[in-house]
Amino acid sequence: MSASPPRPAPTTHFGYREVPVAEKATLVRGVFTSVAARYDRMNDLMSLGIHRLWKRYFVATSGVARGDRVLDLAGGTGDIAALLHERVGDTGEVVVGDINAAMLDVGRDRLTDRGLVRGLRWVQLNAEALPFPDASFDLVTIAFGLRNVTDKARALREMHRVLKVGGRALVLEFSEVKSAWFKPIYEVHSFQVLPRLGRLIANDAESYRYLAESIRRHPPQEALKAMMVEAGFERCDYRDLSAGICAIHSGYRI
Q: What is the pTM of this model?
């Protein structure tokens, strides 16, 4: 009897490329190590500063309260954590988690320089296997990070697991632009302007080309809402921002 041919290794997308599942986390880590030092500056240039308004609105409508314990995934350079820290106060805690050590270093140094130390904890982790007990947090947030996770469904299940009953998960992520007249402009900005800015400012066009491609491969609004329902969240909903350039998804653990 002849031996069966070996099964091909499972693949997933890395931008528009198909790569082995086992390699994606390493590739993503490489992208963000490359851009960490200039990440926020590039975000300002790419979005004309609008990303800061999106993030402020994201936190302002999160329902976070003084004394809450919050997990901010893909927390990177600490901009969301700083906004959350203001709201949880001295009796609360913000745990910043990211798979990339370079991004965590940038965020920790930046917030420490601002005198923000107490009530902040920095953890290198994989969102697909969170190192926390069940029902540990009042709120879990992830901003512009879910699309880079290899197994998004597993990460959503982990977010649900670590939430307390009554807790809320919030996902701020690039989404599907719905305006027909705006789509061509957005495409030019994404695939022509962004890589050129990456080359000029960060000497790294490829990483920014990947970031644009990763947005197109991310589930659009209704698909991501369905994934959150499948992960166990209830009262799932989303709100488009800036014509659907990004959206805030919300779900509760009931």
A: 0.88
